[in-house]
Specification:
Length: 752
Amino acid sequence: METSKYNLSVEEKIRLFNGDGNWNTFSAKGKLPVITMSDGPHGLRKQDISNYANINDSKIATCFPTASCIASSWNVNSAAVLGKSIGKEALKEKVNLLLGPGTNIKRSPLCGRNFEYFSEDPYLAGSMAASYINAMQEQGVGCSLKHFAANNQEKRRQVSNSIIDERTLHEIYLRAFEISVKTAQPESIMASYNRLNGLYVAHSKEILTDILRNKWGFKGFVVSDWGACIDTAACLKAGMDIAMPDSKGYFSYNLKKALADKIIQESDLDLANERIIKSAEKLKASEKENFTVDYKNQHQIALELAEDSAVLLKNENFFPLKKGSVCIIGKMAEEMKFQGGGSSHIKTAEYPNAIDSFTKLGFDVVYSETLSEAQINLIKNPEIPVLYFCGLTEKYEGEGFDRENLKFPEEQISELEKLLAISKNVALITFSGSPVLIPYADCVKGILHMYLCGEACGEAVAALVSGKISPSGKLAETFPLRIEDTPCFGHFAGEEDNVEYREGIFVGYRHYNSKNIPVLYDFGFGLSYTRFEYSNLKVLKSDNGDRVKLQVSISNKGEFAGSEIVQVYVKNPENPQRANKELRGFAKLFLMRGETKTVEILLDDNAFKIYSTKTHNFETVSGTYEIQVCASLNDVRLSSEISVEGKTFEELYEPVPENFWKAAAVPVHTKGSFTISDNLGDMANFSIIVKLFLKIMIFAVKRMNKGKSPDDPEVKISISAIRENPLESLISTSGGILGKKMAKFLVRRANR
């Protein structure tokens, strides 16, 4: 055992379960190697301990494209470059473990933190995450894959209960994590805040030990999300190895009592300690003294990744623009939205915005935040192109809160109406971390969606619009027409803890495509300045014969060099309990004008399988399948049928019983039922004293953030935490401001 050679006392073993400060593991007075952690995942958010409470106050670092953006590249090499580049900055700052990537499934486009996640499809999400992890860990910096698992909303994220049937859980919500663990072995997994089928994930031995370690073969350590350790002994017994951040003695007190009461054994501590020490030794051994970073090159990488990921959604002979006069309208051209709010917010150096970047390329730019008189006179000339920069501001998406709808800000819609009344030669440059209902999409000439593409945003827009680079990104998620059309409408982020995932496996395109629901933009959709042709499809067995691979030739028949994303879907035998078709492979390749390349794609090992609740494993379903080679979900270029042998669907599937939803629910709160696992917001409904205390706490947060807008993500996340986080979470994250005695007093008042 690693613990024995360090001769740790029982007190030290207990203390090692909790972080030392906000970002480090316990050193036992210098006896143990220490893991230093830092937020990510699209840049290094390194903070000094004294600045922990101020999310936006961190060391200057490179802000790369967010996961939602990089996923639109469909380029595992780009994901690898991202991981490697952030790893370099981590090495410079002596950070051993980066908290990322995030690979939660995008169940609803309204989730406020979707910009940190890759896709609505688990195969795409898992493939991108695994590539990122492998590349970063090759640098000697560990990854903590998050948030495990079924953490798909921000509202009430620390008390919500995701109710998911077994098949859906494994096929959709665990699958990306499974791919990442089996192909990349992240150094750490971060246990999420939420409950799953009535039990906190951090309390679930089934999730953290039986599935993660025993079934998938995970070899690293499990860390709590910051403040996710509720009932310390239960977390340790389930398979959590360290709780973050430093609880100032609270967790140690609980574990000492649990040890004395024989709820836990010293061997439980030894097992958790062993995993932490093993990783600490490994990560310390890879530290490099005086490691330097070329930040100019890092910025160039951020630019190339942004160019590789942007999605051209519409182009009616508008793009690319020839150099000359261009009218640019919208504050987002000047103060660019290139990242989201919350724990992933990166403090960057200053870089050119879109106006500067267009000017540098030789354009004659006429800019104003809103439509000016000078611009009105200019754009009456139908030859003058107009670019309107618009999208979601920080008010609409960020950690700790969810969006209310799919709409753009009303002031932007109004401005666009005025603009279109004067000029028909208008295109949109749009920004958001997740799907939006783009206003007047039918009326504008072009739409270039940048997602949240990092600090090189302005230069990337100019390069793409000018034709220096042909857009090659494609959507890694569906853009719906109405929120009412989304698969979980009516079962997402309500005021109650219980959230029923009634849509089952029909998430994202599986829902829209299987049920013939029209959408704004399909999964996998994206335009280019050039044109690609597909030919010579061959379906083959893999070298070891247990998987299917295919070969297909792609030719660039257009006038621009560019990249094409080849998407392979498997159309399932018709069955109402299976998606019509599912993504099972993809590849991205660059072609010069007139060039032809043949690409080989190995299909996912679950290409013809479902998760069986009878065998509790993925099993092959017999039948005739159609392999579709596509440019996007519904743009099928080539296809071939294949006969597969296995078990019948009926042998493997059993429907979800109606009583499952009630059995997996947590009770609705009533007076007398509250504990320190509950939150002030719920307790305030039953106690004037608690309501007053909550108001005082919220007032204190606003006072601490004096001068900031109530819509500032830092303010919103703090207020939602005070209102929604369990009292035990507030005890462990407040640095002693809220103590056990006060928490228990508030519980008593709520229960009176």
